[in-house]
Amino acid sequence: MTYPTQPKASHFINGKYVEDTDGAVIDVIYPASGEKIAQVHSATPAVIEFALSSARQAQGAWAAMTGTERGRVLRRAADIMRERNHDLSVLETYDTGKPYQETSVVDATSGADALEYFGGMAATLTGEHIQLGEDWVYTRREPLGVCVGIGAWNYPTQIASWKGAPALACGNTMVFKPSETTPLCALKVAEILHEAGAPAGVYNVIQGLGDVGAALVTDDRVDKVSLTGSVPTGRKVYAAAAAGIKHVTMELGGKSPIIVFDDADVENAVSGAILGNFYSSGQVCSNGTRVFVQKGIKEAFLTRLAERLKDAVIGDPQDPATSFGPMVSERQLGIVEGYIAKGKEEGARLVYGGARLAQDGFYIEPCVFADVTDDMTIAREEIFGPVMAVLDFDDEDEVMARANATEFGLAAGVFTRDLTRAHRVAAGFQAGTCYINTYNDAPVEAPFGGSKQSGVGRENSKAAIAHYSQLKSVYVRMGDVEAPF
Ligand code: NAD
What we know:
The protein is α/β, with parallel strands linked by helices. Helices cover 39% and strands 20% of the residues. α6 (185-195) links the parallel β8 and β9. The structure holds nicotinamide-adenine-dinucleotide.
């Protein structure tokens, strides 16, 4: 079978596709079949140099345009992205294995939302005037310069857009390196931005593994690094950026709690737990993988969950009827199988699924463990796969202490009909993104990001502007200057 997936070339730099076959080959594997569907080459030093010098060269003129002009480019890109939603979604499904049922409503669409939102905001970015008697200070909101974006493999279009849109709105240029597991979609984001009128060099994409990411992060011409990835990678990238005192945004991993009190609407709580564990086959950073269920509602919750999971349609992800696709790679599938074995070994009770499917591709059934305790590996470590751990609890104080007893702090959710308890619990969560009677929404209008080891900085919303720009204060004296001698 042939696939419509081979890109014109590996990299997109200075407004054009660029190839350098001296770079190591990176195979692109379709997770639903295990077949090779494309290949790209890792960036050579010459490619890295070309990308960084192009971004540096383009930055001054891009920043000198008015916000309205820059915003128009981004909004045009949003329109093109929406017009091409079908093709982009098909490609996203080939790149990641996520079902078309998801990609057609979440990936290019949320990328377009970010381009539209920050495109609209570009013209509103201003400083302020601060009166000091007769004298005054004004501030200028200025770009940081060249930003590097480094992506994870679960949302390649979204991550490339969530980083690119605010960076470009503020007058920065970007070099983006997608995950080596999903190298295809970011090239389309670059192509579309260029087609929408972004000058050459404003948004560049280069391929490679961690070594290429590391070369970008340590380059003196780079002013800011925004990473979406795991905590161990975050530690390395943060440290490397610190050596150059560069700005950073770190969107890292999690082991988030969902607390279900026994007054909750069971159907909604089950829906939240399904969304928070099995969407994208569980490969979502903010997933609520520790589901604390109050003892009075536990059996009803588990029974309904098992019934609902039977309705999951596992199969060809390009078929719009499929609601549960494969894992992104053989490697990730192996990691998930290892955690499921550990769960059984450590005494958790397997109540649903967890078996690899006897077919091509990297398929595993959604998996639910009950009677999980806080010390078990599956309750402590990020699995990044469809493995839900259900834990029991008695009262609010106890569950809050246990929910927060983790080094992560990305997200947290609560299901209850008690209004004051819902807000008290949300206030008590040590997490950047919290949900009451819902889970895993991520609209561009709201800040998204983690606390504790889940990250620093925020993406989306007005908050992202602070992470892609800096303020300059200008002091203006209207009278004479007084000096002591
Ligand atoms: P990863 O940490 O293995 O890799 C992330 C990216 O970093 C890749 O592009 C990789 O090539 C690059 N990289 C690796 N080493 C590097 C180095 N030394 N210097 C520079 N770059 C380097 O993560 P992954 O397996 O691709 O993605 C899964 C992880 O991402 C999970 O932990 C998940 O929770 C997290 N994630 C977080 C968010 C969020 O917004 N908080 C979103 C999606 C995924």
